[in-house]
């Protein structure tokens, strides 16, 4: 090969050598450039102090529903006798005068006989009084006999009224008295009627049962009739909280089965006795029984409105819950935040009451705190 051919082939050899090294070999001596750091997110954080707001305060406790004793009737045996028929059932709604049961009683026959005798005595005393006055006018008898005749007449009238009153207590109406006075009515059966309107909530009478009148300080309730349109709710208030409770305060009653359903009433009685075992005072409220949902002896939750107070609040956005803990983020310095556990109360106009954990002097993250949670772990 001539020298001229070598000169012509030299550039081609240089080119082939460069291609054989490849891109990795070509950059082997170059210094590696560091990777660019990701741009930091632009976090917008708003910090504010807790605010004091006015809210209605209440005293929460437990209680029990009871029948309104002022709208309750207990029916006892008006005479001693034997029950012949029972005419009403538990749960039945009755009106005044509704027939409850029939009793056969010798006492009724005796009361009718006493009344008939008293009426006859009045007639005899009246006739004797009239005759004595006529004799006195013709000076046939002294004035002393007139006075005695007048006294006998007044005594007989009083005895007749006593016998009539006894019959009225046995359910005998005035329209029946003339027949009894003439001894045309000497029956011994008495019908016991409902004294008031309401629901029969208890019955303790059966046919053939012997019932007694006036033989015990605690007579048997043959029937109990209750007006269930209102109920008593008796709440237990602990001794330190008693000064906060007054008559007339509004009461909200909640059933354990239906926490979203409230019954409203008012305090009408505060006991003067502290229970020595529980150290509580009984507070009673009359509550309209909407839909008859309140039942006697039912346990309920009671909230007594005690006035208006000032409470510390924060927006809902400041509250975090994690792992069973409720906390907020408190600013300690520039870009320095710390978690602080809090105890919450009731919600109030988009905010939430803070019972414990922060003070009005604290600076709490209200907006953007969700972006700082990981940094404050």
SSE layout and pairing:
Layout: H1 3-26, E1 46-48, E2 51-67, E3 72-75, E4 81-86, E5 93-94, E6 99-104, H2 106-137, H3 143-169, H4 177-181, E7 189-193, E8 198-203, E9 210-211, E10 223-226, E11 230-238, E12 250-255, E13 258-274, E14 280-288, E15 299-315, E16 320-322, E17 325-333, E18 336-341, E19 343-348, E20 351-356, E21 364-367
What do these coordinates show?
The chain has 377 residues and is α+β, with helices and mostly antiparallel strands. The chain has four domains: 77 residues, Beta Barrel (conserved putative lor/sdh protein from methanococcus maripaludis s2 fold), CATH 2.40.420; 91 residues, Beta Barrel (Elongation Factor Tu (Ef-tu), domain 3); 68 residues, OB fold (Dihydrolipoamide Acetyltransferase, E2P); 82 residues, Orthogonal Bundle (Helix Hairpins), CATH 1.10.287. 23% of the residues lie in helices and 39% in strands. The chain is built from four helices and 21 strands. The chain is elongated.
């Amino acid at each position: 090969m001539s020298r001229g051919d070598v000169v012509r082939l030299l550039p081609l050899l240089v080119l082939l050598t460069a291609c054989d090294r490849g891109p990795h070999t070509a950059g082997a001596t170059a210094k590696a450039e560091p990777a660019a750091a990701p741009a930091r997110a632009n976090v917008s954080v708003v910090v504010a102090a807790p605010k004091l707001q006015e809210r209605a305060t209440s005293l929460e406790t437990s209680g029990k529903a009871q029948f309104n004793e002022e709208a309750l009737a207990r029916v006892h045996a008006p005479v001693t006798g034997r029950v012949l028929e029972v005419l009403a059932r538990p749960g039945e709604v009755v009106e005044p005068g509704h027939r409850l049961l029939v009793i056969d009683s010798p006492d009724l026959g005796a009361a009718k006989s006493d009344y008939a005798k008293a009426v006859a005595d009045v007639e005899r005393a009246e006739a004797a009084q009239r005759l004595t006055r006529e004799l006195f006018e013709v000076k046939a008898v002294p004035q002393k006999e007139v006075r005695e005749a007048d006294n006998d007449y007044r005594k007989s009238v009083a005895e007749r009224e006593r016998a009539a009153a006894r019959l009225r207590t046995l359910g005998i109406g005035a329209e029946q008295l003339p027949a009894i006075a003439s001894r045309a009515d000497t029956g011994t059966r008495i019908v016991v009627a409902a004294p008031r309107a309401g629901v029969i909530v208890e019955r303790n009478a059966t046919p053939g049962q012997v019932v007694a009148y006036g033989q015990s300080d605690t007579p048997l309730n043959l029937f109990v009739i209750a007006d269930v349109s209102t109920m008593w709710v008796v709440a237990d208030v602990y001794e330190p909280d008693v000064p906060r409770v007054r008559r007339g305060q509004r009461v909200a009653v909640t059933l354990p089965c239906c926490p979203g359903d409230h019954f409203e009433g008012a305090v009408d009685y505060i006991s003067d006795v502290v229970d020595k075992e529980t150290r509580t005072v009984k507070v009673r409220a009359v509550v309209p029984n909407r839909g008859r949902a309140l039942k006697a002896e039912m346990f309920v939750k009671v909230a007594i409105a005690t006035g208006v107070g000032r409470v510390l609040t924060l927006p809902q956005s400041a509250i975090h819950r994690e792992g069973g803990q409720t906390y907020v983020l408190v600013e300690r310095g520039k870009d320095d935040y710390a978690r602080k556990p809090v105890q919450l109360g009731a919600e109030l106009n988009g905010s939430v009451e803070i019972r414990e954990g922060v003070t009005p002097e604290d600076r709490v993250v209200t907006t953007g705190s969700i972006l700082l949670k990981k940094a404050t772990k």
